[in-house]
Amino acid sequence: MPRTLREFQDRIRTLYGSKDARRGVEGTFMWFMEEVGELSAALRGRSGGKDALALEFADVLAWLATLANIAGVDLDAAVEAKYGRGCPKCERTPCLCHEAKP
Amino acid sequence: MPRTLREFQDRIRTLYGSKDARRGVEGTFMWFMEEVGELSAALRGRSGGKDALALEFADVLAWLATLANIAGVDLDAAVEAKYGRGCPKCERTPCLCHEAKP
């Protein structure tokens, strides 16, 4: 099983890369949003239990990885750039400011 | 820098866990959606370049990790359960079915 973010993104590319390239960014974004809606329902406890909730998180993450693949973005490098030095606003760990993630 | 999904989720908890617990799932979901909106704009090329696009992906991923922390979901275990055996529909790698991710 892939464990790093890069391995997970590569795995999604291996599984679905050819379908993803044909669908394009607009169509993929609509699929991503459908999964976000299902996550919202699951978080409100309207569908299934804890296992079902976890699977909705997995689906949102998979479609986010697909969007990143289509857009040519490396998720691992992106989170390193944004969160690799602590809070991107105050640069502390844990965050001590009132600007980031209120 | 955290490299595995679990390390990334743990890092977001370390950075923002106390704020996240106070904000709760509903408020956090609204923040998550704001970042999804910014990702949509960046994908349409309306804001910044490739680096800005990557940072929007990082923000969506960070807020997804925050939601998972609040909900008590392990993202690594979730993607293992859903995508650890190939396509969850046809169980092939790459996917060969017409049900998953058309």
Describe this structure as you would to a colleague.
2 copies of one chain form a homodimer. In chain A, 69% of the residues lie in helices and 0% in strands. Chain A is an all-alpha fold and 102 residues long.
Short overview:
The structure is a homodimer of 102-residue chains. Chain A is 69% helix and 0% strand.
Summarize the biggest pleated sheet of chain A: none
**In percent, how helical is the residue content of chain A?**
55-70%
Order of helical and strand elements of chain A: HHH
Global shape of chain A: globular
Q: How do the strands and helices of this protein lay out in sequence?
A:
2 copies of one chain form a homodimer.
Chain A: H1 5-43, H2 50-71, H3 75-83
List keywords for this structure.
homodimer; 102 residues; mainly alpha; 3 helices; 69% helix; globular
